[in-house]
Specification:
Layout lengths: L13 H18 L5 H6 L1 H8 L5 H10 L5 H8 L12 H14 L5
């Protein structure tokens, strides 16, 4: 069951993209080598990215395609979706592939 329904892809403005890139860079610095999903997701910059809402979706998907990373919590929080089956959990590259595939099926482009 989804908690949020997106009816159409969101256009991303240059200001949102610049902010996203700044926050993504900060997030990677803040989290350091942590392997805790909770610690990674609770970083202030990551939380601000979630706060960007649907405008962040294509930007996160682009990052996932470019370099698989722990964007899954943010995507799930923003979209209310989770296209990753239980047997793929913990496999970052596979999870990234599934989310990118989901994004394309939803009509997102990046």
């Amino acid at each position: 069951m989804t908690t949020a329904t997106l009816t159409h892809p969101v256009a991303v403005g240059a200001n949102v993209e610049a902010l996203f890139l700044t926050l993504a860079h900060r997030w990677k610095e803040e989290r350091g080598p942590s392997s805790s999903t909770t610690e990674i997701a609770m970083c202030p910059s990551y939380q601000r990215i979630i706060g960007l809402g649907p405008a962040a979706i294509p930007l996160i998907l682009r990052e996932l395609e470019r370099e698989p990373d722990h964007w899954f919590w943010a995507l799930k929080a923003i979209t209310g979706e989770d296209p990753v089956p239980a047997d793929s959990r913990g496999k970052v590259r596979e999870m990234a592939r599934l989310w990118v595939e989901w994004g394309r099926q939803q009509g997102y482009s990046w």
